[in-house]
Structures are given as structure tokens and as C-alpha cells.
Write a structure and sequence with these properties.
- By secondary structure, this protein is mainly alpha-helical.
- It folds into two domains: about 1-25 and about 160-390, no CATH class; about 30-155, no CATH class.
- Helices cover about 60% and strands about 10% of the residues.
- The chain has twelve helices and eight strands.
- It has a three-stranded antiparallel sheet, with no helix packed on it. The chain has a three-stranded antiparallel sheet with strand order 5-6-7. Strands 1-2 form a two-stranded antiparallel ribbon.
- A hairpin with a 2-residue loop joins strand 3 and strand 4 (about 100-105).
- Helix 2 (about 50-60) packs across helix 10, helix 7 packs antiparallel against helix 11 (about 335-380) and helix 10 (about 285-335) runs antiparallel to helix 11 (about 335-380).
- Mean pLDDT is about 80; it is low at about 1-60 and about 385-390.
């Protein structure tokens, strides 16, 4: 019982480590997946189903045609405000450091992309273009030289979601740890009864099976952190309104950070036998090592790359497919009202089906990432056959 409590407490420190590393990567990358646009003249908030409805309504009145591609890319991308419901959204802090100094102001200054903001402190005129903060002159033209000096440390929707998810996870684990302390030896109940089977599942079917009975314990805090962090954020991404609506685990900066953490843990934990197999695999002729060793070294870096792409691609693809079928309602609706109503039955049914599938995918992708991380750790700490024989 005490081991469980200690394990849960250690998770908190690793959660905070993931928080700061992921937050920094997300802010500095400024959303690596942002091929999407926060269009300068759009008339509603970003990244929401209310945005879709607003465009569809505009198309019916001949104001603006529904742009499915832009809507989808905005949904899976990041933004500088956090949508709550309808046309209501929460502006987030914009933090820009440049040669002129540090500027901190609210994203509401941009009026959803319609206005520019001139800093009283530095005199820089800021504007948001394609979800990127740029410097402009008095005529609205971008000052590329000044923009290139920007360090954008803004709290975007993805960063805010990351902070929210870490607070939520800490609350869950602290509550469970207190329940163990308050009721030692008693059957779990409430939140404790929900979390404990998952922890046991990760311990027995992932950690022990992949790493081994002797060495799995020191990796449990990290494996639990990664699993719950990915799973919770996958679920939050399926909620279209506050506190969800962000595609955090579909952001390549976040998945890159998680994969890098796995890579670092693997390299630090690796024993002599692991490196011997990487650089000079036993029993292989020397001339074959000339070919094999570079492949093994390449594989060392390909493993975290696969982790990064697998999570990013699967989560993002699920959102895109569901939104694509949902968009067909408005596309057919622009042709005729009857076509829109008729196709809406099929589109809605398929979208609901995809959302149910996404619930499974949310758990599955968290499990796969955790399992592969455990497999890499197991490979890194595996003893050589001669050492095992000597031990017996």
C-alpha cells in the first residue's frame, strides 16, 4: 500500500516536469501544425463548432461561403483565445519578448484578428496573422525583420489546456493518495476504485511484462504520468466547448516533447549490454558491423520519432475525419436546403460513430505510447545472456 502511495506522489514531480517542457515546446514552436489560418476578416471565434455554424449561416445569406478546409484546420490548430460556448471566448495572455523589450497584453486587443495593437511600452504595433503574432507598420504591412526577433511565449489555448490537464491530474492523484492514507487496508471506493485498476493494469500488463519483475518499479512513475496525461488530454480534445476544444495531443510540439522524454529516460537507463548491442552487436562479423551499426544508431533515434508521429497522426486524423463528414452538411446545404437536411442524417450518424470510436482511440493511443515506452526501457535495461547465466 505504501509503495502505491509513494508511486503516486512521485508522479506529481514528473507531471510538473512534463508541464514545463511541453509548455515551453508548445509556445516556442508556436504550433508546428499551424498550416491553419485565423483569417483576418472572420466574424466569429476560432476552433469551435459555433464557428462552423456562423459560416454556414453567412453562406445561406450570401455573405460568405462555408470553407470546410479552413474550419477543420482551425479546429485542429491552436489559437490565442479559449472558446467557451456560442460566441463567448476567453482571451489569453500574449507574451512577446523582442529586442525592444517584453510586452504582455490580452489577446482581446486583436478583436479576433480585426484590429492591431500598439504597445505603449515598446512602440511595436502587433497584429495576429494566420495565428501568428507579427509586427506591422502604420499601413498594416508586416515588418519581417522585427517579427523575426520575436520570442513568442504566449499562453495559447493548447498551453492553457496543458495547465488545466496537469491541475486536473494532480487533483486526481492527490485525492487518491489521501484516500489510501485515510483508509489503509480498506477496499477502494469512489475515484480510488476507478484509478486503482488502471494503475494495476499499467503495472502488471505493461511495466512488468515489458521491463521485468526486478527493474520495473523505477519506471512506474513515468509510465503512469505519460499514460494518464495522454489519456486525459485525448478525452478533453473530444469536448467541443470549455474546458475542452483543444487538440493538445494532436500538436506535434507536445508529442515531440513526450517522445523526447522517453528517449532521455531510455538513454540514461541504458546499461553496458544495450550500448554493446548498438555499436558492436555480439556474434556479428566485423565487416557486417560496418552496415549494421549505423542502422542501429539510426534506429535509436527513429524510435522516439515513431512515438511522436504515431500519437500526433492518429489523434489529428480522427478529428479531421469527424469534422469532414460534419462539414458535408453545410456543403450540401449551400447547394439546396433539401440536400443539406437529407445528408445531415447520414453525416450526423457517422460523426457520432466517429466520436464513439475516438473514445476508444483516446485510451488506445495512451496505452500504445506507454507500452512502446516500456518496451524501449526493457530493452535498455536487459542483461546480457552471459550475465544471466552467471547469476544463476
Amino acid at each position: 500500500m505504501l509503495n502505491k502511495i509513494n508511486t503516486l506522489r512521485i508522479v506529481f514531480s514528473l507531471l510538473l516536469t512534463s508541464l514545463f517542457l511541453s509548455g515551453a515546446s508548445t509556445a516556442l514552436a508556436n504550433d508546428s501544425t499551424a498550416a491553419h489560418a485565423t483569417a483576418e476578416h472572420e466574424h466569429s471565434t476560432l476552433s469551435t463548432e459555433s464557428h462552423e455554424a456562423a459560416h454556414a449561416a453567412g453562406a445561406e445569406h450570401g455573405e460568405e461561403k462555408f470553407n470546410a478546409g479552413k474550419m477543420i484546420l482551425e479546429h485542429v490548430g491552436d489559437s490565442h483565445d479559449w472558446h467557451i460556448a456560442g460566441h463567448l471566448s476567453v482571451p489569453l495572455p500574449v507574451i512577446i519578448y523582442s529586442e525592444a523589450g517584453l510586452d504582455i497584453f490580452s489577446s482581446s486587443r486583436f478583436e479576433h484578428g480585426h484590429a492591431a495593437y500598439e504597445s505603449e511600452k515598446t512602440g511595436i504595433i502587433y497584429k495576429i496573422h494566420e495565428n501568428k503574432i507579427i509586427a506591422v507598420d502604420f499601413n498594416g504591412n508586416e515588418n519581417k525583420a522585427l517579427t523575426e526577433t520575436f520570442y513568442d511565449l504566449s499562453i495559447t489555448k493548447n498551453v492553457a489546456t496543458l495547465l488545466f490537464s496537469v491541475i486536473l491530474l494532480c487533483w486526481i492523484f492527490i485525492s487518491v493518495a489521501k484516500a489510501y492514507t485515510a483508509n489503509p487496508g480498506k477496499a477502494p471506493k469512489g475515484l480510488q476504485s476507478f484509478v486503482e485498476p488502471i494503475i494495476i493494469f499499467i503495472r502488471d500488463d505493461v511495466a512488468k511484462a515489458s521491463i521485468g519483475e526486478k527493474k520495473y518499479k523505477k519506471f512506474m512513475p513515468y509510465l503512469l504520468t505519460v499514460f494518464f496525461f495522454i489519456w486525459i488530454n485525448n478525452l478533453l480534445g473530444l469536448i467541443p466547448i470549455f474546458p475542452g476544444g483543444a487538440n493538445l495531443t494532436g500538436n506535434v510540439a507536445v508529442t515531440l516533447t513526450l517522445a523526447t522524454l522517453t528517449f532521455i529516460v531510455t538513454v540514461i537507463s541504458a546499461n553496458k549490454n544495450y550500448w554493446h548491442h548498438i555499436f558492436a552487436m555480439p556474434g556479428v562479423p566485423a565487416w557486417v558491423l560496418i552496415i549494421l551499426t549505423p542502422i542501429e544508431i539510426l534506429g535509436l533515434f527513429l524510435r522516439p520519432f515513431v512515438l511522436m508521429v504515431r500519437l500526433f497522426a492518429n489523434i489529428t486524423a480522427g478529428h479531421i475525419i469527424a469534422l469532414s463528414f460534419f462539414s458535408l452538411i453545410f456543403i450540401f446545404g449551400e447547394m439546396s436546403t433539401g440536400a443539406g437536411l437529407g445528408f445531415s442524417l447520414f453525416s450526423t450518424a457517422f460523426t457520432v460513430f466517429m466520436m464513439v470510436m475516438e473514445l476508444l482511440v483516446a485510451f488506445l493511443q495512451a496505452y500504445v505510447f506507454t507500452l512502446l515506452s516500456a518496451v524501449y526501457f526493457g530493452t535498455a535495461v536487459e542483461e546480457g545472456h552471459h550475465e544471466e547465466s552467471h547469476a544463476h
